[in-house]
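Help wanted!
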Amino acid sequence: MSLKLGIPSKGRLMDKTAAWFQDRGVTLSRSGSDREYAGIIDGAEGVELVLLSAGEIPRELAAGRLHLGVTGSDLVREKVPAWDSRLTALAGMGFGQADLVIAVPGFWADVHTLDDLDAAAAAFRRQHGFRLRIATKYHRMVHRFLKSAGVSDYQLVDSQGATEGTVKNETAEAIADITSTGETLRANHLRMLDDGLIHASQATLFQSKTADYSGADNAALAALSAQIGIG
Amino acid sequence: MAETVNQTQETRQLAERILSVFEHAGASRIETDILQPSARLLDLYGEDIRARAFTTTDPLRGDYMLRPDFTVPVVEMHMSGGAEPARYTYMGKVFRAQEEDVSRPSETLQVGYEVFDRSAPIEADAEVFALIRSALAPLELRVATGDMSLLLAAIRGLDTTDDRKAALSRHIWRPGRFRALLDRFSGRVQPPQSRLNLLEGDIDAIIGGAGPEIGLRSAGEVAERIERLRADAKAAPIDDASVALLDRLLSLKGDCDWVLDQLEGLADKSPSVADAVAAFRARCDALGRAGVDTSQLKFEGSYGRTSMEYYDGFVFGFYSDQNPGLPPVATGGRYDALTRVLGNGASIPAVGGVIRPELVQVVGGKI
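Answered by r_m:
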């Protein structure tokens, strides 16, 4: 067995991950053609590179099929229940930044805080006969956030894309989504709540607590950690 | 949770014995469907239930949940034409997805006893509690009791606006938000600048300047809330004595006889809680007649605040001190408001409780 490191298989996230490791003396590259999902790692003994979708890396880490993995800290929190009992965040990598926020229509002049959202939701439910709808694909994180803030009388409706459009389309009254510059929110006449930041996400190197570290894996992990300056 | 055939049989036999105790107490046995329509449970409990329930879909009928509790289907069944008064008992599995603790099972047995009786609700409180207590007596469990109606009465009696009372009552089950509201309404914490900005100027201009109207919540609704915020800003803060009364009710902790003494002292100064305190005394008396020694029965003013909503009166739970991480072996309480929500205009005082046979076995006693 070797120590398995999972990284995103395409796009800017893969390029920046490779650059991050390169800065620390470890070269990641694809084996064979650009289209082949297998990797070569240079500068770290006993480590196997696995290329896969960033969205699947949290699950693979939690199941212990990867020892190490690079993915968004938001994806780990959303996809892995009780994530910090199964994974350790080793290093924030300083790219892929995006904020998961709660946003409401800009013209809701009366709603700037979670306290306002809660009161508006109660009035909305009385008026319309159903709970105020918040569109999101981050159900676990949004529910936990609103529960800890004591917000009630809302419901989450699933939206896997174009979430900012749901309010205008009247399939939701508010949204919880990822934003980096806030431009898409503004273009859709939405505004983030003052205390509506659920999570500031960035690409993060995670380690699995559930994977098997027998044999040479511990030595490989120690060598890689020393090489990239963590742990 | 993997169980041997023997364990499963023993649990089932234990549940049957509890069920027959409840039947002997006068309850009729009822069954409810395992598949419960999602929409109604979601409307009632919100996202908390979605996060904890197993959801599944019927291609024609839509979303269902595997029964997360018995109370809702039992109340619905009773409200759609049950005779009065009624005593029901039931036995079956409830299903809860576990987000945090892998040691907790996803399905557990419950045996329950529910009383719908408008003639003598206080007697019914005592009856349900005493019945469950005597069924569990050999286990020597720690008992916790509380009474949400004291706090609700104190809120109703506040010298403040109806909006503030409604907001406090609505968040009685969320202690953090309740405290934040109370701090705001009593003037201890100032509102944020974003709210102060709304207190002056033409409301239509404020809304019009903030952006185009989109979505189902209308500009009229926004304007209405701003009017309410302006009215609230003019209202006098809730006075210190009233805040102190709420704090005192929440911090009461001791045996029921001592607590009754304290409560009667409070009622002398705060007539708003007098009726609830009189009901507390009557329940202590009824518990005494049912064989419960109220000088030994523990009461906590804040007990029941963090469990599911809709318990709005007497609440109780039975715990094993030898197994501190274990959920309560039995719980119950009064849920009059739930019958109003599910009753399409009708309502009836109702109280009930459940015993969890698997936990009785974990605690290891013979009952």
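OP: Thanks! One thing I noticed: The first strand of chain A starts at residue 3 and ends at 8.
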